[in-house]
From TrEMBL:
Protein name (Swiss-Prot/TrEMBL): Short-chain dehydrogenase
InterPro entries the record matches: NAD(P)-bd_dom_sf, Sc_DH/Rdtase_CS, SDR_fam
GO molecular function ontology, one term from the record: oxidoreductase activity
Gene3D superfamilies documented for this protein: NAD(P)-binding Rossmann-like Domain
Protein origin, superkingdom: Bacteria
Organism: Tardibacter chloracetimidivorans
Signal sequence, start to end: none
GO terms under biological process: steroid metabolic process
């Protein structure tokens, strides 16, 4: 699911390369033709809206019934808006939670009856932001922390039928969304309301400097790394419960286990303070 995003395309391509039978979902109906032209090997394509969990559950359940046998479901879709918590709108927060967390519950409820029959796998995509928070990402961080706990409950319950629920934890992955976010951030800085600019303008500029520097230095992890982790999660006899993807994710997830909250706050904030803005 979420096959038309950067990571989703990489996962779909990797599955097709290994001759898996793949059914792909995209975010909107108008995306289907373009996706089909780039990856024509999928058995079928359907548009499912992760922002509408009730409709998603009903539509996905019907589609799975048409497919019949389901051995694995892999979910890659997410959104990552940025704003300080003080100025994050409730609508933006709710939508982020719906897409990044609630939709995963809908997918789980739809797919579990089918995965139960095959002792299959459900592979979801979280983030290192589900373990370590960073400024300006309040709704994204909250959604990924929530998904961490939800996955633990799913794994504990689904394990009664041999169904594995696995969470990928990518770091900064090189996808088109990276460049769209950079442009959106630049535009947001230009149009900040006066109060928000006064209180958080420096933090916005620090965030943009970090994003610009990462793009210039090409320090992002290739999307293929997500595909490799997804294949491991599907093919391992006993998969790991979580797969950090990228050195930044591996380092931050490890820090979340070994450092105190105050120590992690200082490490994260020092990265922002080091920006020459």
């Amino acid at each position: 699911m979420g096959a038309n995003g950067g990571a989703g395309i990489a996962v779909t391509r990797a599955l097709l390369a290994k001759n898996y039978a793949v059914w792909a979902t995209v975010s909107r109906p108008e995306k289907i033709a373009d996706f089909r032209s780039h990856l024509p090997g999928c058995r079928d394509y359907i548009a499912l809206d992760l922002a509408k969990a009730d409709e998603l559950k009903a539509d996905f359940s019907r589609w799975l019934a048409e497919i019949g046998r389901v051995d694995a479901v892999i979910v890659c879709g997410a959104v990552a808006p940025f704003a300080p918590a003080e100025f994050t709108s409730f609508d933006a927060f709710r939508q982020t939670m719906e897409i990044n967390c609630v939709s995963n519950l809908a997918i789980y409820q739809s797919s579990l009856p089918f995965l139960r029959e095959t002792r299959g796998r459900l592979v979801l995509t979280g983030s290192y932001s589900g373990k370590v928070a960073t400024p300006m990402m309040a709704s994204y961080v909250a959604s990924k922390f929530a998904l961490e706990g939800l996955v633990d409950v799913m794994r504990q319950e689904a394990g009664a039928w041999g169904v594995e629920v696995v969470l990928l934890q990518p770091g900064s992955i090189e996808t088109p969304m990276v460049y769209r976010s950079q442009a959106t951030l630049a535009q947001a800085i230009e149009n900040l309301p006066s109060q928000e600019a006064s209180l958080y303008g420096k933090l916005y500029r620090q965030m943009k400097y970090r994003a610009d520097s990462a793009i210039e230095a090409r320090t992002f992890t290739p999307a293929q790394a997500v595909a490799d982790a997804a294949l491991q999660a599907v093919e391992a006899a006993v998969p790991e419960t979580r797969y950090p993807v990228g050195s930044d994710a591996e380092n931050l997830v490890a820090l979340s286990r070994s450092r105190s909250d105050r120590e992690i706050d200082e490490l994260v904030l020092e990265i922002y303070r080091s920006a020459p803005v």
